[in-house]
Structures are given as C-alpha cells and as structure tokens.
Specification:
The protein is mainly beta and 141 residues long. The protein has a single domain, classed as Beta Barrel (Lipocalin), CATH 2.40.128. Helix content is 13%, strand content 50%. It contains 1 helix and 8 strands; from the N terminus they run H-E-E-E-E-E-E-E-E. The chain has an 8-stranded antiparallel β-barrel with strand order 1-2-3-4-5-6-7-8.
Length: 141
C-alpha cells in the first residue's frame, strides 16, 4: 500500500512539473508591436500578463492604455499590465493548456484559447471564435 501511495505521488509530481513548464516570460510580436508576457500560476490554472511593451509612452508623457477594452473600468489599465490569458488548465492527455480565455487588446475581443509547445522555447497559442482561429508563436526567454 505504501509503495502504491508513493508511486501515485511521484506521478502527480511529474504531471505538475510538466504543467508548470509553461511558467516563464515570453517575447511576443503581434501586429508589429513587441512585448513581453509573463505566464504564472494563478488560482486553479495559469494566467498570462503583459509585463513590457515597446511603445508604452505616448506624446505628452501619457502611457498607452487598454482603450479598446469593452469593460469601461479596464480602459485605463496600462498596456504593460494587461491580462491576456486567464484560467487555462493543463490537459496531460493532450499535453495542452485549455479551458481558458485569451483577450486581444488590439481589437478588444476575447476568445477561447489553446496553448502547446512546438519546441522547448516556442509556445503556440491559438485563439478560437466558433470555427475560426488565429495562431501565434510566443518565444520563451
């Protein structure tokens, strides 16, 4: 019985380590804008948040904000603090992160999302709206 419990704990630990490989900072380019996005554990899944954007400063000392957000209370969030992905969870059987949403600040829309690694340093991200989808690559730093 003890051996069975130890094996189950080891299997759960290995799965958690595999799920956590998504954690880190990524270089992202979207519509000609470069940014860095940090993925971290959050609540019962993972969250991705912008931590740097190359065009943050606007003329007059203002900072670029999430002005296209459909939620008026979020339109003043600085562009380098926007939450892009929320509530994704790891599916060990498929080796993907799903069940969450991705927000695109370039158009203010939210989509279903699926993420997977193409290689150790390349994370593929696909946003879905019905049968339509768009895929991007994020580069782990």
């Amino acid at each position: 019985m003890f051996l069975l419990v130890c094996l189950m704990m080891a299997a759960m630990s290995a799965m958690a380590q595999k799920a956590d490989r998504i954690v880190g900072t990524y270089k992202v380019e979207r519509n000609g804008v470069n940014s860095k996005v940090k993925i971290f554990k959050h609540v019962d899944g993972y969250r991705a948040q912008v931590v740097w954007v190359d065009n943050l400063d606007l003329p007059g000392g203002l900072k670029r904000t999430d002005f296209r957000n459909p939620d008026p209370s979020k339109r003043e969030v600085r562009a380098d603090q926007i939450v892009l992905i929320d509530k994704v969870t790891y599916d060990a059987k498929e080796d993907v992160w799903t069940n969450g949403k991705i927000y695109d600040p370039t158009n203010g829309k939210t989509y279903r999302v699926k993420l997977w690694f193409e290689s150790d340093k390349v994370l593929k991200m696909r946003g879905y709206l019905g049968i339509f989808h768009d895929t991007s690559e994020w580069y782990k730093q």
